[in-house]
Amino acid sequence: MAALELQALQTHHLGPLSLRIQESNTSLTGPSGSGKTLLLRAIADLDPHQGDVRLGSETQSGMPANRWRKQVAYVPADSHWWAERVGDHFPSDKKCGLKAVGFGPDVLDWQVERLSSGERQRLALVRALALHPRLLLLDEPTANLDPENRARVERLIADYLEQQQAAALWVTHDAAQRQRVASRHFAIREGDLQEVTA
User: In the chain, what is the greatest distance between 2 CA atoms, to the nearest angstrom?
Assistant: First the structure.
């Protein structure tokens, strides 16, 4: 598993941050507006920032953004959909994972407008995993889910990380979830990233 390293990374709210994370699943918390989403978006190279990010031997600044984002997948709390049909958002040969989050293959023929916020959230995760990223940046991926579907998503992510030897940085406000899913924990406090025990 490749280590994630932040090298003097700075966003509008945070930094500069220098940090190395080797664990497969790391949690991130902090007050609303503290910069959690901005940090994930900077790591994914979606927003302007200073400094650099390293994943294993590769650096964000050393490759085109679209190539970086295939390795580093950002899954937002509110996913984006650009076509009318669900199946149009998935690679034609990579549609596994639907059953793991409670869907049958018929979901690919659904209209996006009929999806609830929780259904969109689960499908956005499967869509991201279809690209086989080495790092998942998860912005409250279970915020809109009931306990049953939250457990399905947690299990799918854990299985993916183990099978692919990948890593995840997971934003969650749920203390119990942090304990379940992550082995290392950070909190954003006054513009800095601090390690916490739980």
Answer: 47
Identify whether the C-beta of residue 193 lies closer than 8 Å to the C-beta of residue 34. no
- The reported pTM is 0.93
Q: For residue 145, report the phi and psi dihedrals to the nearest 5 degrees.
A: -110, 150
- Strand spans (E) along the chain: 4-10, 17-21, 25-29, 50-55, 58-59, 72-75, 135-139, 167-171, 184-189, 192-196
Q: What is the pLDDT of residues 18-48, one digit of tens each?
A: 988 888 899 999 988 889 999 999 999 999 9
Structural domains of the chain sorted by starting position, each given as residue range(s) with its CATH number in brackets: 23-48+64-196 (3.40.50.300)
Report how far residue 134's alpha carbon sits from residue 59's, in angstroms, rounded to the nearest whole number: 13
Q: Which amino acid is at 91?
A: P
Instruction: List, as one string, the DSSP characters of 13-32.
Output: SS--EEEEE-SSEEEEE--T
Hey, is 57 helix, strand or coil? coil
